[in-house]
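Appendix B. Chain record.
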Amino acid sequence: MNKNNIESTLKNQGYKLTGQRRFIIEAFEECPAHYTAQEIYEKVKAQNPNINFSTVYRNLELLCKIGVINKLNISSGISHFEIKHDEHHHHVICLKCGDMQSIDVCPYAELKVSELDKLGFVPIEHKFEIYGYCKKCSKDN
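Structure tokens predicted for this chain:
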């Protein structure tokens, strides 16, 4: 999702692209990755020293709510955020260093839709994460 799509999504849902939101989006655009709220706050604070953490966090939550940012709740208990991608992907997460990588594998694609139909279940979204050790950390063990 690019800045223009984000701005139109905000407008369509009755929100403005405020200066704070622009700084947050630019932080993701300059280096697309997965960030904690604290990491985004530090990036934004470098551009706008007057901003506070609660403002950044509230805006991240709003951007998640309207569907332009994904919130990843990983087993460490620390949420990570990423700009929503047009392509579908999942994650592998290192239990030692916390490194997170995107993968294109999707086990949901293999799930028989008829199984969900039998349950009367209508899926809206899904998440898939694999936990283990990255190349660097597995050498350290």
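Further analysis of this model is presented in Appendix C.
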